[in-house]
Amino acid sequence: MQQNEKTAYFTMAERLLYILSVCGILLAFGIFDRENDLSLAASLLGVTSLILNAKGHPVGQALMILFSLLYGIISYTFSYYGEMITYLGMTMPMAILALIAWIRNPFPGRHREVRIDRLRRGELPFLCLLTAFVTVLFYFVLRAFDTAHLFFSTLSVTTSFAAVYLTFRRNPYFALAYAANDVVLIVLWSLASAADFGYISVVVCFLAFLANDLYGFYNWQRMEKRQKASHTAR
What we know:
Radius of gyration: 18 Å
Structural class: mainly alpha
Helix content: over 70%
Order of helices and strands: HHHHHEEHHHH
Shape: globular
Number of helices: 9
């Protein structure tokens, strides 16, 4: 069983998704950018993180920490202070906590797969209230920094916070929250592309992220069913 897991960790569909994502990012960089190597590195790091997160592998969270650092720097260059503050001040610290939680909660018999959890009774309303509080707080902070495209920047904070919270809680819906965040970021960087075509490569990056996050949600649903079936069999 363990030998089979080692030789076929990624399915053919997962390999194809990853290869297409990397090729799309490289192609967009070659056509629209060719200069911002930091953006390219962040994109490749991010998409690698997501395919590992889709498998519930803790290394995916380690890579997310590095991605958050690079993405925060990139966001600063276009005065997207909301993105910078969100990823450096929220996503990166939460990714560190998530990494610890994922390492401490492996699924028995599969050290490279986190044990999936569900929100406790009353936790969803708490998450909604906490997300609303963070959103309002960041709105005034971002407005004070004269953040570009304030509405979408604030919405990005909302979706990002929900995503990082659910990631820490090892809940399948973290991937769906990240997918919602990807849609917001596609809009944000499309607006940036109107001023600088080089940012189209960032748009393509988040389109790849969207595909990977949607797959991640699908795969975590499958993982959860398998884990429940395995637990019942014991």
